[in-house]
Design brief:
434 residues, 80% helix
Length: 434
């Protein structure tokens, strides 16, 4: 500190030594000697806190002489904040530690704002990442599923408020990376709490269609948080976040496929649908991941082109599967794997396909979307194929005639709607080409 305060060409190098030496010694002691086992956690934590207080004093002394170049002050402040976090890890329980670290992040933001210490924003970013890691992985969701409800809500709510206070003080122009990282955590936390509450309702049953859907939702949240931070990432950090986003996306895909195929109650006799109609385990398994995916293109600037189409396609598949399984549950009860299909159930699918086709055509008309129009045409084709090849095959006499008349009227309405929409879309395409 004395050498750093004296100034000169090596002043900044001495400041780096000031910031690194004491923390490195204390961490080495913790790793190799475990002082808490010899003198107790309170005494060892007090040593670290005392060193943090000395670093704070050094930062204050340097702030008196550094008016333009604040790097020496920032290094001492970073050392103080790091040692404070280290002391909290030694002294506090898992529950208190997570909240305390979130408060430390808010404190770091206030220090940066008061003294204009740009490097402190790096501590803020790593602090937010560490708090998020503790909320999701260690002790994370496993602890949240077993802890008392009030205690769980206090931890996640306390972290949300602390990070919210930090976000409110951050400037998007001066500290874009720190603000974006904090913002991604704030967007993720409410969704994560909902997933945890649903897991608690299921009593932690992971090996089920609802459990796999919740796991998929968790990984989707984690992947979206990484993708949200990509615009403010560069170099190796950008590559690392791309890798993490891809890994979480792969895990989400695996869990979603397990919910759709392996644990699908339509063919898995061990899977029973629970809960009230519509808001049941099918909603948790398929609609919740679909809703999270549908939010991705709106929240993520990197979600463009083919990725957007993939996301919308998977979302549509989730919703279609949910609607189909809910229809079967309406007619057949909670066990969907029972053999056979009743006529009312069969006709219900045709009605739903007609509604979907009409809805897609109207959306294509109002949004001037060629992609939606093509999708609507596919839905119309499926409706016709099912109606003529499946539904009509089992009808006879006057019922078959009446069914043909009704279907003809509906198809005539769809044809009229198509004639109204197609010229408008062609005009839009011509205008865009010009």
């Amino acid at each position: 500190f004395w050498r750093a305060r004296e100034g000169g060409e090596l002043a900044l190098a001495w400041a780096f030594g000031l910031a690194l030496y004491a923390p490195a010694v204390l961490i080495a002691l913790e790793v190799f000697w475990r002082p808490a086992e010899a003198i107790g956690q309170p005494a060892w934590g007090s040593v670290v806190l005392g060193t943090a207080a000395i670093m704070t004093l050094f930062a204050e002394r340097l702030a008196r002489i550094d008016s333009d170049d604040r790097r020496r002050v920032a290094l001492a402040a970073l050392a103080a904040l790091g040692l404070l976090s280290f002391a909290l890890i030694i002294l506090l329980s898992d529950v208190a530690l997570t909240i305390a670290l979130a408060l430390t992040v808010a404190l770091a933001v206030l220090v940066d704002k008061r003294f204009d210490l740009r490097p402190v924003s790096i501590f803020v970013q790593f602090g937010v990442i560490f708090v998020s890691f503790r909320l999701v992985f260690e002790p994370g969701m496993d602890w949240a599923l077993e802890a008392p409800l009030v205690e769980m809500l206090a931890v996640y709510g306390g972290c949300f408020m602390a990070l919210g206070a930090a976000w409110a003080q951050l400037s998007a122009t001066e500290r874009p990376a720190a603000k974006t990282v904090t913002e991604s955590a704030l967007l993720s936390l409410p969704a994560l709490v909902i997933v945890i509450l649903l897991f608690r309702t299921l009593e932690g049953q992971v090996q089920s269609h609802a459990g796999q859907g919740l796991l998929a939702s968790t990984f989707i949240i984690a992947a979206m948080a990484q993708a949200y931070r990509l615009p403010v990432s560069t170099g190796w950090l950008f590559s690392l976040r791309v890798c993490f986003a891809g890994l979480f996306g792969l895990l989400a895909t695996t869990c979603l496929l397990a919910a759709m195929v392996g644990f699908n109650p339509l063919h898995n006799a061990n899977e029973v649908v629970r809960g009230p109609f519509l808001l049941d385990t099918l909603f948790v398994a398929y609609v919740l991941p679909g809703l999270l995916l549908s939010a991705a293109p709106r929240l993520l600037s990197v979600m463009t082109g083919p990725w957007r189409q993939v996301v919308y396609g998977v979302t549509s598949l989730c919703l279609l599967l949910y609607i189909g399984l809910e229809t079967r549950r309406f007619w057949r009860g909670d066990v969907l794997s029972v053999p056979g299909t009743t006529d009312p159930e069969l006709y219900s699918y045709t009605v739903l396909l007609l509604i979907a086709s009409t809805t897609l055509l109207l959306l294509a008309y109002f949004r001037r979307s060629v992609e939606l129009y093509r999708l609507a045409m596919v839905a119309v084709g499926l409706t016709l194929a099912k109606a003529f090849l499946v539904d009509m095959a089992g009808l006879e006499g006057l019922i078959r005639v009446a069914s043909f008349l009704g279907l003809g009227l509906v198809l005539a309405g769809l044809a009229w709607l198509n004639n109204q929409i197609k010229p408008r879309l062609q005009d839009e395409a011509t205008a865009e080409a010009a």
